[in-house]
Every structure is written in C-alpha cells, then in structure tokens.
Amino acid sequence: MSGMESILGWAMACNAYIFLDRAFASDRTRLDKILDYYSRCGYNYQVLIYPEGTDKCPLATERSRKYAEKNSLVHYDYVLHPRTTGFVHMVQNMRKG
After folding, report:
1. pLDDT (tens digit, 9 = 90+) per residue, 21-41?
2. Cα(85)–Cα(50) distance, rounded to whole angstroms?
3. Are the CB atoms for 52 and 22 separated by under 8 Å?
4. N or C: which end of the chain has fewer CB within 10 A?
C-alpha cells in the first residue's frame, strides 16, 4: 500500500465511511453500528456508494446465471445481477431511524 492510500484510508475511516467485506454476515454488524451512530447523532442520512464490483469473467457470469435461474430472473448478457442484500438492509434500517 502506498503512502497516499494509507492517508486516504485513514481519512475515510475518520469520516465514518463504511468499509465492507462483501459478506453480509460480517457487513451487517458494521452497517447496523454506523447507522445506529448516525441515528443517535440526529443527522440526516447521506449515502454515497462506490460501486466497486465483480469483473464479468466466465465464473462470475455463471454465478449470475445460476442466481437468475434460482430466483426466476432474466439472464443478462452484458452485466451481472447486483448484490442487493446489504443495500436493502441499509435502506430498511435507515427508514426506522
């Protein structure tokens, strides 16, 4: 990691950016803690999403196809099905607060 990445990561952490593992079991706790913090502060929510995702390689394409088949969704040719569990959880949590 370069010095600039270290500084940016530190600055993002100080500004309560939410760093995710892309595994909802561990991300759920992080999301709940930071959203609870924002709710207790009394500030309006502001969400900026950096959609870093999965490259559309053959393995990811096959996983997306299987997910679509399992959930009766259309199969996409040029994009992958998005991972929405964390986002939906976050929005539902924000509506409560």
Report:
1. 888 999 999 899 988 988 898
2. 16
3. no
4. N
Residue given tokens 């679509």 in the structure block: 68
Q: Please give the structure tokens belonging to residue 43.
A: 């500030």
Query: What whole-number distance in Å separates Cα of residue 71 and Cα of residue 54?
Result: 20
What does the chain look like in DSSP terms, one character per residue?
A: --HHHHHHHHHHHHTT-----S-HHHHHHHHHHHHHHHHHHTPPP------------HHHHHHHHHHHHHTT-PPPSSSPPP--HHHHHHHHHHHH-
Question: What is the rounded CA–CA span in Å between residue 15 and residue 11?
Answer: 6
Q: From residue 89, how far is each of 7, 8, 72, 75, 92 by CA, in Å?
A: 30, 27, 22, 24, 5
72 token code pair: 């009766």
